[in-house]
């Protein structure tokens, strides 16, 4: 065995791993991606193996290819130091905790194969649950504590055990109790096989800059070791851990409570290996009797009026896991529904020892066998049947099992508000919670990690960040002259009082479609609202005329796609009467939020070719100046106007020639949706040098596929649109890519970038390209070293960190671009993958921060660079089209190609 610890051939750490669910893979994920969502592994945090130079001798390099493969592109290397541009320095604490380890430690990897001893009646044995596997492993270790010391091993919950000492290989018989009084113990065969050994010297060499590829397998093993302690004491949900109990103050009062947990992972950084930990909050059903849950959960519920609430009861309990309290058992059952008969009416067949069959009443059965007198005999039982085996249990004998997540979107308004408040603690509270978790007995640090030679510093990492000054912005005076403005020094916001937009469009042809007209309680008062909107637009130099007409409609039209289509086509035709051109936009007023919103957008933007702006009647009737301003800004941008522009040239690129900014993102269906396609969107600027008007292209692709299949064609279409509007193709492209983890950087560089360049080359077009990835799904948090006395206490807008806690060898930086008024601000992590423009740290940070000020929807910087922000909105719009096209009732309008944008809309900012 060599020193690297790779023992044997073809029997590495991959053995025994099952393909993970979900994730953001492309349908055929790598092994690391497949395990990305398993509790024991955080594979998505680690980049693909790449060629790196020693850290002590790094210089800025661009467009590298792998040392092992001349055609394989690798991410840009970081300079030896970060940037220097700053308005002022700021002392920060980061929730990274320095990790040290013994490089001489040898970690052994064992494959665990567990099989039931009972003969299998079916072709394939039933898959054992994680709970059962954990019980079997626990029993094996408790039966043989000398050979299998629990404190020196870590278990992934399925097929893999890791140990710092040699474990005896072989097959062992293990018996565990069934958890039922009337059942025998279950027997299993547990086979232990050594499959690999890992030496931590490789990780030390990589962190010191002396190894060319990241030892991902070792990092994953150590990550699992750090999860072992919380896994033994807490409930795991994905990568998060939650305690079994909740604080009394976190009771959401509907049978649901907010549980405070955490998520953590190991990260290679410039300071070495670090443990990154952040707290989280999730809603769970409380462990409580089923009847008590129904009383809390269903408003007005009374056990004496059960029939009245039967439908709501079934909706609340179907699919929920329960256990029974009339006998000692750990067994969990899934509620299939309610019985049709009441408890007193249910009987079942029973066979006596003599072989005689008789009917037994359920109420009598519980009285005779358990001495329990059923109180509620005139209500149904819970149907806990499984595999054609009938099992009916009275509600009063059932309790909800702990650890059942409750979807936050199903919470009522008050509970949802409470959960949001709990989930958004101010910085000083969040910082304290993180430190408390690190020092707790159930946190990631414990005997197991120490036995593996791993020690963690309990203090957050200190970093000196930099606050970049905000850019100067350009607006117009009330007489149309351009003027420079400086933003507020603290919040970096600005207002339009006494000012106008840079380029206000003339709006002569527009229509109001009032869907609230038939709602007596929430109808629009059209006259005052129209005049206030026109007045506000004109005050911003957006010349808005009276609407062509006011069209009354009803909210129930949304439930019928055919009628909604007919209405919208009628409005478009009527607006064109007299030889007029189609309306510039429809202002659609709704009495409340409605699922029909997606049908409206789908029909208008893919079939009729109309831009829409929606608003609620209550907001319109009570419209204040800020609401009207926001409405006017969105309308102006959708029609091709320009609200705010950067006053100064973009750094490093705003010399000669045209530059196009691109944003790309993929929207995936929910984890519960296993069939719907994902939607890719690419947006691109169509003006220069303002670079604040965008066009979008949206395409469906395979379910949960992260790679944008048609990115070359989509970008080429946007480039051609740019050329039609500007008379020239842009010579420089800057692409911001969203939604990819570090394990998928190779896909972006060696698949998407290649396809992009190939599509351009076929059209004899060879622009220079820079690609940055923007990540919001990370756990790194920045805190002021000294808690602020006034205000929310978040780091100021423009805070940049590009040393100590960033990637050890690649060019990356954290940027907090927005003012955090609620909760704790979360910065965006930008990672430069490809650069043909020779950007420095200062160039990239200033460029990214400046673009955060160019959102057309608000008068403040946004938290995510605008091209990515818009791409996210456009991709979500594709999701709405799909839902609209597949949800309309049978017999209505024939389903059409739901993602093809109408030519009258595709080059407008319809998505904002």
Automatic annotation (TrEMBL):
Residues 585-883 form the Piwi domain. Residues 289-402 form the PAZ domain. Pfam families: ArgoL1 (PF08699), ArgoL2 (PF16488), ArgoN (PF16486), PAZ (PF02170), Piwi (PF02171). GO terms for cellular component: ribonucleoprotein complex. SMART domains: DUF1785, PAZ, Piwi. GO terms for molecular function: RNA binding. Keywords: Repressor, Ribonucleoprotein, RNA-binding, RNA-mediated gene silencing, Transcription, Transcription regulation, Translation regulation. Residues 1-35 are annotated as: Disordered. InterPro entries: ArgoL1, ArgoL2, Argonaute_N, PAZ_dom, PAZ_dom_sf, Piwi, Piwi_ago-like, RNaseH-like_sf. GO terms for biological process: defense response to virus; regulation of translation; regulatory ncRNA-mediated gene silencing. CDD domains: PAZ_argonaute_like, Piwi_ago-like. Residues 12-22 have a biased composition (Basic residues). It comes from the Eukaryota. PANTHER family: EUKARYOTIC TRANSLATION INITIATION FACTOR 2C. Belongs to the argonaute family. Ago subfamily. This is Protein argonaute 2-like. It comes from Rhodamnia argentea.
């Amino acid at each position: 065995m060599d020193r690297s610890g790779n023992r044997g051939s073809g029997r590495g750490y991959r053995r025994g791993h099952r393909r993970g669910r979900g994730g953001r893979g492309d349908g055929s994920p790598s092994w690391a991606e497949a395990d990305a969502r398993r509790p024991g592994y955080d594979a998505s945090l680690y980049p693909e193996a790449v060629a790196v130079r020693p850290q002590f001798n790094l210089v800025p390099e661009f467009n590298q290819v792998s040392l092992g493969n001349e055609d394989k592109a690798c991410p840009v290397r970081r300079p030896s130091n970060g940037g220097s541009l700053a308005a002022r320095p700021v002392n920060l604490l980061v929730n990274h905790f320095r990790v040290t380890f013994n490089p001489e430690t040898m970690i052994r990897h064992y494959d665990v194969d567990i099989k039931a001893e009972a003969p299998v009646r079916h072709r394939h044995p039933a898959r054992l649950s994680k709970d059962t596997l954990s019980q079997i492993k626990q029993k094996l270790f408790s039966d043989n504590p000398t050979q299998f010391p629990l404190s020196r091993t870590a278990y992934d919950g399925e097929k893999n055990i890791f140990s710092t000492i040699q474990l005896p290989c072989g097959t062992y018989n293990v018996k565990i109790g069934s958890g039922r009084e009337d059942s025998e113990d279950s027997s299993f065969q547990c086979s232990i096989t050594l499959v690999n050994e890992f030496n931590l010297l490789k990780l030390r060499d990589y962190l010191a800059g002396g190894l060319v590829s990241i030892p991902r397998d070792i990092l994953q093993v150590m990550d699992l070791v750090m999860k072992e302690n919380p896994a033994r004491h807490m409930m795991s949900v994905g990568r998060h851990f939650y305690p079994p109990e909740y604080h009394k103050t976190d009771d959401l009062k509907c049978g649901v409570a907010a549980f405070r947990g955490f998520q953590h992972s190991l990260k290679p950084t410039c300071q070495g290996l670090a443990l990154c930990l952040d707290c989280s909050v999730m809603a769970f059903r409380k462990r409580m009797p089923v009847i008590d849950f129904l009383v809390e959960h269903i408003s007005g519920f009374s056990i004496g009026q059960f029939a009245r609430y039967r439908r709501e009861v079934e909706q609340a309990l179907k699919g929920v896991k329960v256990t029974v309290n009339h006998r000692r058992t750990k067994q969990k059952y899934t509620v299939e529904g309610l019985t049709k008969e009441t408890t007193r009416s249910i009987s079942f067949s029973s066979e006596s020892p003599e072989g005689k069959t008789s009917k037994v009443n359920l109420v009598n059965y519980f009285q005779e066998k358990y001495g329990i007198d059923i109180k509620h005999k005139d209500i149904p039982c819970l149907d806990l049947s499984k595999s054609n085996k009938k099992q009916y249990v009275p509600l009063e004998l059932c309790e909800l099992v702990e650890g059942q997540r409750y979807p936050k979107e199903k919470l009522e308004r008050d509970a949802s508000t409470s959960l949001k408040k709990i989930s958004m603690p101010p910085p000083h509270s969040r910082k304290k919670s993180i430190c408390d978790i690190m020092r707790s007995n159930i946190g990631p640090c414990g005997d197991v990690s120490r036995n593996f030679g791993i020690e963690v510093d309990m203090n957050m990492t200190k970093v000196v960040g930099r606050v970049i000054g905000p850019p100067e912005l350009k607006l117009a005076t009330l007489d149309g002259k351009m003027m420079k403005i400086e933003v507020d020094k603290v919040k970096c916001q600005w207002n339009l009082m006494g000012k106008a937009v840079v380029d206000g469009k003339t709006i002569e042809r527009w229509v109001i479609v009032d869907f609230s007209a038939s709602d007596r309680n929430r109808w629009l008062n059209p006259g005052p609202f129209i005049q206030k909107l026109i007045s506000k637009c004109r005050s911003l130099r957006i010349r808005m005329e009276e609407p062509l007409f006011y069209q009354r409609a009803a909210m129930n039209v949304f439930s019928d796609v055919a009628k909604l289509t007919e209405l919208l086509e009628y409005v478009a035709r009527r607006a064109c009467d007299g030889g007029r051109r189609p309306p510039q936009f429809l202002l659609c007023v709704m009495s409340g939020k409605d699922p029909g919103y997606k049908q409206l957008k789908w029909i208008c933007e893919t079939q009729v070719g109309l831009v829409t702006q929606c608003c609620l009647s209550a907001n319109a009737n009570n419209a204040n100046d800020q609401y009207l301003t926001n409405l006017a800004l969105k309308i102006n941008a959708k029609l091709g106007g320009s609200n705010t522009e950067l006053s100064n040239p973009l750094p490093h690129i705003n010399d000669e020639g045209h530059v196009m900014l691109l944003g790309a993102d993929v929207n995936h269906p929910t984890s519960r949706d296993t069939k719907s396609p994902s939607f890719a969107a690419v947006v691109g600027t169509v003006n220069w040098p303002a670079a604040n008007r965008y066009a979008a292209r949206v395409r469906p692709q395979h379910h949960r596929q992260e790679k944008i299949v048609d990115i070359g064609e989509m970008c080429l279409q946007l480039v051609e649109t740019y050329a039609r509007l500007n008379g020239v193709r842009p010579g420089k492209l800057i692409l911001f890519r969203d939604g990819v983890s570090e394990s998928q950087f190779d896909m972006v560089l060696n698949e998407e970038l290649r396809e992009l360049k190939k599509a351009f080359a076929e059209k004899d077009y060879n622009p220079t390209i820079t690609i940055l990835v923007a990540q919001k799904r990370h756990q790194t948090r920045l805190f002021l070293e000294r808690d602020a006395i006034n205000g929310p206490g978040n780091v100021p807008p423009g805070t940049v960190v590009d040393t100590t806690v960033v990637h050890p060898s690649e060019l990356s930086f954290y940027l907090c671009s927005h003012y955090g008024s609620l909760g704790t601000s979360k910065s965006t992590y930008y990672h430069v993958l490809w650069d043909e423009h020779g950007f420095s740290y200062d160039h990239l940070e200033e460029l990214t921060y400046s673009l955060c000020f160019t959102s057309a929807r608000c008068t403040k910087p946004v938290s995510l660079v605008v091209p990515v922000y818009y791409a996210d909105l456009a991709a979500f719009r594709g999701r709405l089209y799909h839902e609209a096209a597949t949800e309309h009732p049978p017999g209505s309008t024939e389903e059409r190609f739901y993602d093809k944008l109408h030519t009258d809309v595709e080059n407008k900012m319809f998505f904002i």
